[in-house]
Write a structure and sequence with these properties.
Blueprint: H1 2-25, H2 28-38, H3 55-76, H4 80-97, E1 107-109, H5 114-123, H6 126-150, H7 153-158, H8 161-183, H9 197-217, H10 226-241, H11 247-251, H12 267-273, H13 278-295, H14 300-321, E2 327-329, H15 331-340, H16 346-358, H17 362-368, H18 373-397, H19 405-420, E3 423-426, E4 429-432, H20 433-447
Antiparallel strand pairs: 1-2, 3-4
């Protein structure tokens, strides 16, 4: 019997040795796959680890981003379901580009493009506007390649705070009349009264102060969803006044293909929208710094700004190919990562998958279409003011010296050209708004001489 067990032992050793030799003979790709499934204990919290149990966290992070995500398409005339789909696809594209070291961030609708999208949809239609947004994504990509060639400092030299700050301020200030009109129950241009003023002002103010109080007094995860909280409470008040129309929900089916729109080439839309990509490009750097501080991983070194900006640009262009708003990194989700300490980037993959699945729920799009104008207007009063304040914050953090005439000239021209309605024609194509202000700032910053301050 002992001989029999000895023979089995020798046989087992032979089999084990052959298995060991065969494992070493596997190609590099298979070895990586084996390590991915077997070696778990050595993984860092920020390593990509796709697990089913993280799906709930992913849905929670999508919940945090949901209010802002759907607000942009609702305000600009795009399809919220398309925005959900493109947010999911954009996040997955970003993760693929940065697969060497994936930051745990979620990408969705950018507020910086609300004004140009609204103008573009009214002037040229959705398809033509999308061509301008594709070009904006390509600008991100071009900047990422310039960073590869010249380093990160190049971007700060081309787009210093004295240029970026007033551009961001212009975005918020240009949109402020739209917020005021909608808060009073009118259309965005103030031409038509949709809801009686007395009812609209009550609803909008309740939505506004709900958003404010949640952002100031909320605890934990609730502090991160002020927009969603404002929408919900404002919606309930609107139901009390009987101004919610559920016909869009009744007409919508449970399963529905989102209203995808392919871009149509339009030079006017491209020239109008392209320069606006400047502000979100700088915002991207701030978001990368924020998530680096939270996770204690320097994502500006690995994968590097050249790759994260490339991923953001591709995500924006891909979103526009489907008729969705441009993507940007969401600071709300970074806040949720801070609270939960869930640094695994695969959680954002689950958030992206959830967004894509929800995009095909037709009833959801129908429900979002029932949100009354005063509810949206009340929240926008705060949001657009915050955008303008962020521009001021950009200037103060960089210690921009306003006793310097050069800085005063740059900031003044950007604000007046952006907000005042100045228009230039290039080959018959009108150029105005935020884009004109941004280009004006860049040119002035490059050509105006530095002035030495007399002591």
């Amino acid at each position: 019997m002992s001989y029999y067990f000895g023979y089995l032992g020798i046989y087992y050793l032979k089999i084990t040795y052959k298995l060991y030799v065969n494992l070493h003979a596997l190609n590099h790709t298979l070895a990586i796959i084996i390590k991915f499934f077997i070696i778990r204990g050595s993984m860092n919290p920020t390593d990509y680890n796709f697990r089913v149990r993280d799906s709930i966290l992913g849905i929670q992070f999508l919940f945090v981003a949901f209010g802002a995500l759907v607000l942009v398409p609702i305000l600009t005339g795009l399809d919220p379901n398309v925005a959900l789909f493109t947010a999911g696809i954009g996040t997955l594209v970003f993760q693929f580009v940065n697969r060497g070291a994936i930051p745990p961030i979620f990408l969705a609708s950018s507020f910086a493009f609300i004004a140009p999208i609204s103008h573009g949809v009214k002037t040229w239609g959705i398809a033509a506007t999308m061509s301008g947004l594709v070009a904006a994504g390509l600008m991100y990509i071009a900047l990422s390649f310039l960073i590869r060639l010249k380093g990160d400092g190049f971007l700060h030299k081309l787009l210093p705070a004295v240029v970026v700050g007033p551009v961001i301020m212009s975005i918020g200030l240009i949109l402020s009349p739209v917020a005021v009109f909608m808060a009073m129950g009118k259309t965005g241009d103030g031409a038509i009264q949709l809801v009686p003023f007395e009812q609209a002002i009550i609803i909008s103010m309740i939505a506004l102060f709900t958003t404010v109080f949640i952002s100031l007094l909320g605890k934990g995860i609730f502090k991160l969803v002020p927009i969603l909280g404002g929408i919900v409470i404002g919606y309930i008040v609107a139901l009390f006044f009987g101004i919610v129309d559920f016909s869009s929900v009744a007409k919508a089916s449970w399963f529905s293909i989102p209203s995808f729109t392919a871009p149509e080439f339009n030079w006017q839309a491209i020239i109008f929208i392209l320069p606006i990509a400047i502000a979100p490009a700088i915002e991207h750097i701030g978001d990368m710094l924020a998530i680096s501080n939270v996770t204690k991983q320097d994502y500006l070194k690995k994968p590097g700004l050249k790759n994260t900006l490339l991923g953001d640009g591709l995500a924006t262009s891909v979103a526009s190919l489907f008729g969705g708003p441009p993507n940007t990194t969401y600071s709300e989700v970074t806040g949720a990562v801070t609270v939960t300490k869930a640094y695994n980037p695969a959680i954002m993959t689950w958030a992206a998958i959830a967004a894509i699945v929800l995009a095909f729920v037709g009833k959801l799009g129908g429900l979002l279409a029932t949100i009354p104008v005063p509810v949206m207007g009340g929240i926008m009063l705060l949001l657009f003011g915050i955008i303008a304040s962020l521009g001021i914050s950009t200037l103060t953090r960089a210690n921009v010296d306003f006793s310097c005439p050069r800085n005063m000239v740059i900031v003044s021209m950007i604000l007046v050209f952006s907000i005042g309605g100045m228009t230039f024609n290039f080959g018959g194509v009108p150029f105005s708004g935020i884009g004109l202000g941004a280009i004006t700032g860049i040119v002035l910053n490059l050509i105006l001489p530095e002035v030495k301050t007399e002591e």
